[in-house]
Amino acid sequence: MATQSYKKLVEHYQSIDNFEHLRAICSWDQATFMPSGGADSRAEAMAELAVHLHKLHTAPHLAELFELAKDENLDTTQQASVKEMHRTWQLQTVLPAELVKAKSLAGAKCEHQWRIQRQENDWHGFLKNFEPVVALSQEEAQIRASSSRMTPYDAMLDIYEPGMCSTQLNQLFGDVATWLPQMIQTAAQDYSPNHTAQYPVEQQELLAHELMALLGFNFNHGRLDTSVHPFCGGTSQDTRITTRYGESEFVNAMMGVIHETGHACYEQNLPQSLAKLPVGKARSMAIHESQSLFYEMQIARSPEFIALLSDRASHYFPKYAAINKTQNLIAQLQRVEPSLIRVDADEVTYPAHVILRYEIERDLINGDIQSKDIPQLWDLKMSQLLGISTKDNYKDGCMQDIHWTDGSFGYFPSYTLGAMYAAQFKHTMAKTINIPQQINSRDLKPIYDWLNTQIWQKASLLSTQDLMVQATGTGLDVSIFKSHLQHRYCKA
Amino acid sequence: MATQSYKKLVEHYQSIDNFEHLRAICSWDQATFMPSGGADSRAEAMAELAVHLHKLHTAPHLAELFELAKDENLDTTQQASVKEMHRTWQLQTVLPAELVKAKSLAGAKCEHQWRIQRQENDWHGFLKNFEPVVALSQEEAQIRASSSRMTPYDAMLDIYEPGMCSTQLNQLFGDVATWLPQMIQTAAQDYSPNHTAQYPVEQQELLAHELMALLGFNFNHGRLDTSVHPFCGGTSQDTRITTRYGESEFVNAMMGVIHETGHACYEQNLPQSLAKLPVGKARSMAIHESQSLFYEMQIARSPEFIALLSDRASHYFPKYAAINKTQNLIAQLQRVEPSLIRVDADEVTYPAHVILRYEIERDLINGDIQSKDIPQLWDLKMSQLLGISTKDNYKDGCMQDIHWTDGSFGYFPSYTLGAMYAAQFKHTMAKTINIPQQINSRDLKPIYDWLNTQIWQKASLLSTQDLMVQATGTGLDVSIFKSHLQHRYCKA
Ligand SMILES: [Zn+2]
Ligand SMILES: [Zn+2]
């Protein structure tokens, strides 16, 4: 048969996906319902599963199947499918097992101690564990680079954002860095809530479910639960999102829900015929983030949606209708204010946090700077981009994120690339859909139908570049992101 | 090293247990939180896991390891451990793969169609699917029997209740059958609730949690959730029980919770040093059931506990304090009434349902009767034991249970054996612990400490016979069960 090897590959990756399914559900359980006493045995079971998955990913017969599949008579989808399987296989097999193990151990130790060291602002203690993580990550980057003719950092970036490179990022982020500090100054506005309120969690949950339904979340194939750190997990047939509620405030929980709903709708609408194959998965981290940020930033922070949110809030929290009138929620949701912490940053200052991290991790992985240089560079770049000093404040400076502690270098750019892609999707969509009017009439179907057709159904069938060109007519255009920010935040 | 093969066996069975952990959590999720649209992909993932577990259980190198371990210098615990591993291995490897597959397919088909056929009282439709299940189960029983010098039925019984045989069951159940019908007549009492009430589920959950805590459930290592069919699942480090609430009534949900708490306390208190090995698991189905029935029947249906329940009910449902006074709850919880359905039966009539099923499945598997004979035998035995006819009523007669549909012959005796073991544990415990007084003072610790020492901590280190003798001084003694029933139900 002409597609025999291809079929064997399909079976193998479907089998992998079945085990990934078990991992996804047990991870979700770990973050939501597992009693704390279950942690040790769960960790053991998950470690066993990880070993098994690694065996499947590096099964010796795959090399030959990929060779044989090359000569088979495959259609376009099958070719794209083999390409993504092969990419997965390369990512998994290129590193020597000892390096994977050494990095995993160093990363676990660094992350574990970081949880205490960060609280204690203990940079020097952290540095001792961090330097081996960087050294092993550099080794990883060099091995990945040598098999792919990229720079070391680009080889790491490629894990999360295939097709992206630092030449393009330097250009994109360099552009942003020329106008962002001025824009932040123009847009900056204080916002301080001057009231106390009590929003019952049960009511917040009802509102969250209503918003999810409005945004197209399919409850027959997913759930909303609570966890300390909100996430989107589960599988594409059973997508589990979480949020975190506070009683004094409901807007943050709702924005979290809306953000994760964007991730979830992407997952839920991936093509079911390819569901268990690498080609049937989301295109990249940045495209994934573009969907959550489309929902959160392009839709939910628009004046029309904020008016809708205000109306629904008055229904669920009638006592605080006056506090939650549209103009107050706009003041809260469209505030701009330079601050130390990335995860709390607003839409305008967020890219500054990402650019700073990108420049440092790029130079670190390429060996152009050393770990010990980071605090000084952090302080310098924070001052340049946001006008804030982090001198001697490691806790709220270079020690604030978990990403680097286990060597996940190359991930940070996804956040701001996602914001840029989202702005570009919105820009194109607005040519054929009256988005404000759809929001006002509470019919978001044309909006998520567009995303479904242009992005969700495409899965990994196209490269990010081709996906963008087919959806928007052009590759990533940073000027659209700039216009979006100007339009929303620089009205005066 | 003198224990090298033993250590390899330990590693192998620990690895199996890690995958069983994933299965337990994903099964729990399937019954509690999974959205219905997730069912298909979950079924695929679970099937993949079952295949993988079967591979591990039948790994070719195990035979040699068991041979080598025989000559190793093992202590008593290690010897018991090898024995249980070997038992697990034999159960898994003795059947040819084609038979396992054929039975699984026939069973799935029979069970699937039974769900409709039962509703439609369609015995003849059911019989078509059931006959192949019986034929394959007979084949299974013969293969199991031939490797162990048992009768075919005893070989099936041995899966669930190692050490038990039909000679002993004939004697035990034969004894019961001589006095039970008369006792049922003596004890029979109508109970019909003559009020309407509304018990909010949130309050029932609070009461359930309080009762679980009282009974020694460790919430750091477990949870209570809801599902259509109550069960005890999860792992011994993370034990998940479920119940089902109705708003018009709270007693059944609480009895379900107490029953599953009995199962859960056994699981939670298995020796952690052996947690992942066959020898560290619960001894048998009947011993497991003895723990849930100890809690439900010996403790929770005692007058002292019912008084306690009445008091707590008046706290959580003050509106219905009069309805739930002790004497009313006793009338409900100690009612005796012959009825058609096993799962709704009371403590006195329940053994009749089990004896009937035992006699039929024994003769069926041994080839002494045929499937088509079942309805007539059912009607006959129901008349003899309970004085009720099931003529032409297959739905509430021989088609009421799920057990036979997939060929789980040999399981039914566990229920009544469990009730007998429970009565015997209580009888012994009462010699050193004033159980009524402990319940009155709401301190059940001495009770579950006794169970912990005598049963839970023993796991599968002893045979059921040795466990009984060590705990109670004698093997199973049916007269204790009889006395218990007489004492509680034949006071007049
Ligand atoms: Zn996100
Ligand atoms: Zn039970």
How would you portray this structure in words?
- Chains A, B: Broad specificity carboxypetidase that releases amino acids sequentially from the C-terminus, including neutral, aromatic, polar and basic residues.
- With 492 residues, chain A is mainly alpha-helical.
- Among the domains of chain A are: 4-93; 201-334 and 430-461, no CATH class.
- Helices cover 62% and strands 3% of the residues of chain A.
- Chain A has helices at 4-32, 39-57, 61-70, 76-93, 97-119, 123-146, 152-160, 166-187, 201-214, 251-268, 285-299, 303-316, 326-333, 350-365, 374-386, 413-429, 435-440, 445-454, 464-472, 478-489; strands spanning 222-226, 232-235, 238-243.
- A 3-stranded mixed beta sheet of chain A has the order 1-3-2, with helices on both faces.
- In chain A, a hairpin with a 2-residue loop joins β2 (232-235) and β3 (238-243).
- In chain A, α14 runs antiparallel to α15.
- The radius of gyration of chain A is 23 Å and the shape is globular.
- The first copy, chain A, starts with a helix and ends with a helix.
- Chain A binds chain B through residues 15, 18-19, 21-22, 25-26, 29, 33-38, 40-42, 44-45, 47-49, 52, 218-223, 225, 234-235, 237-238, 275, and chain B through 15, 18-19, 21-22, 25-26, 29, 33-38, 40-42, 44-45, 47-49, 52, 218-223, 225, 234-235, 237-238, 275.
- Bound molecules: zinc ion (2 copies).
Number of discrete helical segments of chain A: 20
Quaternary organization: homodimer
Bound ligands = zinc ion
Largest interface (C-beta under 8 Å): A-B, 35 and 35 residues
Widest β-sheet, arrangement of strands of chain A:
1-3-2
Whole-angstrom Rg of chain A = 23 Å
- Estimate the helix proportion of chain A, in percent: 55-70%
First-to-last CA distance of chain A? 68 Å
What does the main sheet of chain A amount to?
3 strands, mixed
Tell me the total number of β-strands of chain A.
3
Mean pLDDT figure of chain A: 96
Shape of chain A: globular
**What portion of residues of chain A belong to β-strands?**
under 5%
Instruction: Briefly note the structural class of the backbone of chain A.
Output: mainly alpha
Please write the string of helix (H) and strand (E) elements of chain A: HHHHHHHHHEEEHHHHHHHHHHH
Point out poorly predicted stretches of chain A. Answer: none
EC number (chains A, B): 3.4.17.19
GO molecular function (chains A, B): carboxypeptidase activity
Protein name (chains A, B): Metal-dependent carboxypeptidase
Keywords (chains A, B): Carboxypeptidase, Hydrolase, Metal-binding, Metalloprotease, Protease
